[in-house]
Amino acid sequence: MTQHHHPENDDSYASLSVNSGVAQPPSVNPYAARRPKRKPLPTAGELVEGILRGDITMLSRAVTLVESLSPVHQAIAQEVIEKCLPHSGRSRRIGITGVPGAGKSTSIDVFGLHVLRGGGKLAVLAIDPSSERTKGSILGDKTRMEKLSQHPGAFIRPSPSAGSLGGVARKTRETIVLCEAAGYDNIFVETVGVGQSETAVHSMVDFFLLIQLAGTGDELQGIKRGIMEMADGIVINKADGDNIGPAQLAQAQFRSALHLFPPTASGWKPEVLTYSGYFELGIPEVWDMIDRYFRFTEDNGYFLHKRREQARWWMRESIDEALRGNFYGDPAVETMLVGLEHDVMADRRSSFTAAREVLDYYFNKNNLR
Ligand code: GDP
After folding, report:
1. Ligand 1-lining residues (CB < 6 angstroms)
2. Interatomic CA distance for residues 58 and 193, integer angstroms
3. Higher pLDDT, 28 or 74
4. If both were cysteines, with which of 5, 191, 257, 302 could 266 make a disulfide (CB 3.0 to 4.6 Å apart)?
């Protein structure tokens, strides 16, 4: 390779040399450019018809539109959701959480196959607000659920990646509607048990399963009390080999910790079980607990009550999101905020008058008063 003129080719940089690049090679595949164009967008009617038929390709395309930020896609997506709503609601929605390494994917693989043995279809969705940052979702990745992903009755979809937690969660919630309309009667929603996403998952599922591990010293340490309080079932994974004893000890500790919590709104007493996802031990028992929960809450009316409350919560949430989006999406507001924040931080103005000023501007501009 030839050296070209460059300051670092000077003698004082003896160990460095800068070479000229190679010429652009000719196109490797001259036919690549002639690939057929992308398929045209399906209409909402076509998508709905496909979804109701249980066509996985149409379902996937509709979910892609739900996740898209394009207003054209969103318009189609919203029409599809509206038309699917009357066909939705008939599923068991189960949230599954646990810290990374707790064994969520291993467990979902075996739980999923167990459920599918009883017939029906299963959709596995994920909420992972961090997936944009980590590139390539850490959740819902098909290769993580090897057996399940080959099952014809399973639909596995990674977390939508764009946007705020609220946005990501809403898209997952809308995807649930589409999956139910497509005949998926079991829905798993997976999330990493480390932060705010549990609240969002809790607001869209009937049953919330917390996967825990034993043998990490003080078993209750590091578990956010709020997450434990949301759980309808706590399952201690990796109860196999030498870990059986510690798992049983953790079970006893969790049971006594749960006694200290206030009674749940459903009247259901959260249970604590041990199992092994990897060795497939104790799986029917975990599922038997979940079955009992559904029977219990269907009988006492809590199931329906919770679904209605969730629908209301999501309506409020959607309004909040739209209002916030409209406000912060206004370029003049954005400019004003920069200046005002600067003043507030330099103590030149109080937080309240600054907030008032930008809100006054926004309300006046939109004739809101
Ligand atoms: P995730 O990050 O929560 O999805 O966890 P994974 O399912 O990827 O599991 C993390 C690690 O724990 C992997 O190396 C698994 O093989 C292992 N693992 C999962 N379940 C079990 C189990 O039941 N017993 C044992 N011994 N190991 C397990």
Report:
1. 98, 100-106, 237-238, 240, 276-279
2. 31
3. 74
4. 302
Residues 104, 268, 159, CA angle at the centre, nearest 5°? 30
Strands (E), 193-244: 207-213, 233-237
Segment 76-118, tens digit of pLDDT: 999 999 999 999 999 999 999 988 888 999 999 999 999 999 9
And the tokens for 317? 């949430």
Non-local CB neighbours of 220 within 8 Å, separated by 6+ positions: 253, 254, 257
Amino acid identity for residue 176 in this structure: I
pLDDT over threshold 60, residue 331: yes
Mean pLDDT, the chain, rounded, equals 86
Distance of CA 289 from the midpoint of ligand 1 (Å): 22
Rounded (10°) angle between helices 165-181 and 44-53: 60
User: In whole angstroms, what is the distance from residue 23 CA to residue 28 CA?
Assistant: 14
* pLDDT at residue 9 in the model: 62
| Lookup: tokens for 123 | 């959709």
